[in-house]
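Before a colleague's protein record goes any further, I have to sign it off. What it holds is a sequence and that sequence's fold in token form. Would you go through it and say whether the fold makes sense for this chain? The record follows directly below this note.
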Amino acid sequence: MFDEIVRTLDPVLTPLGFATAQCGAGDEQGQVIYCRGDVDSTDGGCVDLVIDLVSTPDWRITDVRYWGFPSARWHLDFDADGDLVDQLAGLARTLPITLS
């Protein structure tokens, strides 16, 4: 699961100033974090793009947050009903526009 995420999103996000993915998971939940340093920071702290995943039974994205936006805009749009491959393809298309 993480290999697919890294293969799809690293080439999209690293040119935008994000570090490569940091990934971790338990039995049923996972998280991928892309750190952007203090670019777009509202308080001078590190700005992260956080992707939450759940295994139900296949891995799917459940939330995407970008800490560089005001709290009302932290949660980014994604295809909540798609499978992981479709969700990643959608994010690969929309994140460069949303985060540029």
The chain has one domain: 2-99. Strands lie at 22-25, 29-35, 48-55, 59-66. The mean pLDDT is 90.
